[in-house]
Amino acid sequence: MASSWEEVKLLAADFQRAQLTSSIQRLSDRNCIEIVKKLISLKLIDVVFTTSGKEYITPQHLQKEINDELIVAGGRIDLSTLATTLQVDISHIEKAVPDVLRSDKGTKLVLDQLITESYMDQLAEEVNEKLQQKGELSIAEIIEAYDMPTDSLRSSLLSRMGSIVKGQTDDKEVIFTEAFVTMHRYRIRGILTAVTRPVQMSTLIKNYALPQRVVFNIVEQLISQKKLLGSLSGQRERAIYSPEIYSRAQRDWVNDCFKQNGFLEYDALRRLGIVDPETYAKTILQGTKVLFLSSACVGERLLDQIEASVEEAHLTGSWVDVVTMLPSQLTSSDVQQVVSTVIGNHKSVKDSMHIIADSIVASNALIESCLRTFEPLMVTKGEKDLQSGVARAIFTEKEPCPDEGKRGRHGDDEDVETSKKDERRKKAASGKSGGGTQGRETKTKATKKKYGKKRANDSDSDEDETPRGKHTAQVSSNKKELVFMSRQEIVKHLVSLELLQDCPDELASGIGDFIERQLAAKYRQVVRSMFMSSMNASATSRRKTHSELQEKITVALGSISLYANGLDVFDGELKSQLSRYLLRSLCTDLVNSIVIYLASEQGTECESESLSTDARLKLINKLNSTPKEVLLKIHQNLNGGTIDDFLATMETVCGAGVLDMMIRSDRKRDRQTMTSHKMSLLQQLETSSDPALTLHIAVSILVQIQLQRMVHFSGKFVPQMIAFLRGKIEKEVFEKLVEFQNMVMKSMSTEDPEEKSRLNESLAGDLKTLKELVGNYKRLSESK
Amino acid sequence: MVDEATKRTLSAIPLLKTKAGPRDKDLWVPRLKEEYQSLIKYVENNKQNDNDWFRLESNKDGTRWFGKCWYIHELLKYEFDIEFDIPVTYPTTAPEIAIPELDGKTAKMYRGGKICLSDHFKPLWARNVPKFGIAHAMALGLGPWLAVEVPDLLSKGLIKHKECGDAAAGSN
């Protein structure tokens, strides 16, 4: 029983104990999270959430875990792997990593990977193992195998070079072992010793599978150690190894060649494998006098030869084609250069020799003589031009044209221009290759020459291109030009010359080019002097004609005014008819002679003395404005005005600005005129044998004597005049006149030849009586 | 009916076997042992579930029990002394648990601070004689009563926190 109570006591004690044991503070997840959140927000604790959300870890713990993981992973671990294995967000890892790095100096963060020093050591060991196997290992290969960034890998490998990695490197790209290098050194030495001519290193490398990176170092070493006799030239990839024996042979060949030929062609050098022939030639031919051209260099001997022949040409006054003396491989520009140098060096011929068509040297004397052959041609051509009035047209133009020579060339200006353009294009296209390889020089020579020539043309025309453009504009407005000969003609003439027989065409055309301008200028001079002399001659004659004309006009005007005076006697129809006749005959003649004079004065020649109305009008229209107006007016007067109008206009015609003449009328002269007119009429009467004419003259005399005035009328007016005389002269005379008139009429109207001869006989008989009657006629006084 | 949580708690408390009261001299001891064992289990269960809410001890013969119980409301711990005697008719009659300091403050209380148990309690107890013991009375009687009455009393302002809430929590 007691034991039972003991047991109860024990149980009671147990109960108390059970009650007093602190209760397990079971917190729900929810609460827990709340509490932790609270704590974090109060900054009482610092924890890191795991990605599962079930755990918190402190940063210290995280760091420790990272370290652990790193060790487990063998010294290299990815941050993302860390994040997944530790179930922590990567951002926390990233935050923790710097601390890890700080705590362990050997650890590095490379491309989001934690890498320890020991890992690198291990890596280096592996690399070393591989290197020992292969002999050569490139960093790139290692990178590929280990997937590490180049820089860090390279730096860590290089730092272990010699310690863990038993090898060496020259450019930090490839690691290789000493054994490897040595092996290749011997291989290379063997290969290059066997080489007898230049080889491209790249082909060697390819053929013998040499490690490209090491090769050049080795070769350079070997050369500098004199274990290889030769030289390495060019950049890495295109480097060429030329063995000593070869370059020696080459130099000997070049020297021999130069000594033999007197020149060196760069192409030939190039064919020998010399990359820069010019500098090579310069070094080889040091000390000798050599002319370096674009495609070759020419030695003194050749130059001397050329010089001698040029001199000879100079002395004999002929020409020499340098091309024939130079090697055919030279380009035309080179030839030109040679020629200019030779001439430039030689002072005595410098001024008297001309380079034509690039390569031909012609002496001044030759050109002079060529020019001389043109002189007779010039004179004939000049005369022709003068006659045709071309020269006159040109010289009377006031516009000064200083360089007629240029104009002469404008005939073929256009094709020169286009060809120049072409040529420029070609120049641009072939610009670089121009000085380059010209293997088949002989074939292209012909065309080359032509270009060269054009270039020569350029040289004098290029610089004044713009002014010439202006000239073209001027010339186009100025249709007539003084052309002596076209270039083709000049060249043709030159070719036909005896002097230039057997010469190449280029020379002829070259000389043609050369002298064309001179010729044109000279021709202009010749024509000018010819023109001037002819002008002088004509000036005096002109003065003479002027005074002659004045005289003529004075006389004509005098008689016209007298005739006009005579018209006053008549009236009505007869008067107007007579006046019209007067205008048509005498006045028209007068005006015609004036117009012709003025026209010739102003350069329009007119052969015929008598002009139709239209022809006259045409001539008048060609005149200058002042005479033109006045003459037009007088022209109208002629066609339907009165005599008085005509006379009035005539005064202005003679006045200033048109004829510049002083026409005076004076009474004494009038009387003289009348008397002389009468005398001439009487004389005519004496000599005349034709009945109609005699009648006409007789009537004229009678009218003048009776009226004391001059009347100008044609045969048509004779019957009217006779009628007019009725009652004014003695009846006897009048009857005789009428009788005679009737007979004349009859003889003119009859068809019968017998009748006609009969009438003519009687007329001839009457003619004498009529003549006597009229000759002795005295004026019948009006009063009777 | 009692709520699910109570039911679950109740089912976790080991049932008793001996039907004996304090008067039954010999049989009371095993009964008391069973009581203790059941209480220990209950307390352990409570602690396990973070639901420790009382302290009990008895006199030497296990007839009179006293201790304290507490209720946490709105993060404040309200603690009350409890006491009760084992009735002579025990286990047929359920013990009447009293909270003297709340005497007169609530209607659901008999004179002397004995709590007025729900209508369900008595038939339930009656049905389970002698399987139910003190632990069951506590879980089925006092626990729900506190859960109902303390908030009510607090809202009526009849009880106040003793200013030593923190101290009480600290003594925990």
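The longest strand of chain A covers residues 230-233.
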